[in-house]
Amino acid sequence: MANPLRFHFWMKTAQALLLAVAVCFSLGATDAGSRFNDLGHRLMCTCGCAQLLGECNHVGCPESGRERKELTGLISDGKSDKEILEWFSGKYGATMLAAPTTHGFDLVAWIAPFAVFAAALLGTILLVRRWSGLSGAKALGSAIDPENEDPEDRERREKIRRETDTGIDGGF
Known about the structure:
The chain has helices spanning 2-30, 32-40, 64-76, 81-92, 107-132, 137-144, 151-164. By secondary structure, it is an all-alpha fold.
């Protein structure tokens, strides 16, 4: 008889804890201060300081105070985040957004860095393979049979060996 009561007690405790966690997280999500902070970090200050609107702190900024008041007004009017970002983008231009959108030509700003990295990686791999001689049949043939090597190559290799021979002391 004690076992079902214990199970019931722990089940109610877990439900109460889950409800408390859900309430705590939902309170922070609707707080106007947290929305202001979130949106302020998604917008740029237009004064030319290259700082986020929420962090523009240089003395005598002519723009950040007015833009922050506009942001506060839009939040208190009940506009959604998307509407607020579109309003600022429409009034001040797309440079007001801290990150480019994922639509149209702005998508290139997200794809280009990865494409350039992939191209550079491929180019590096091909260059290293060429330098290492793995792709040349002539290099493999000369390594296997030095007698079939071109006399100019043999002379050039011998000259390089003589000029770079440091002896026992390691060149010091």
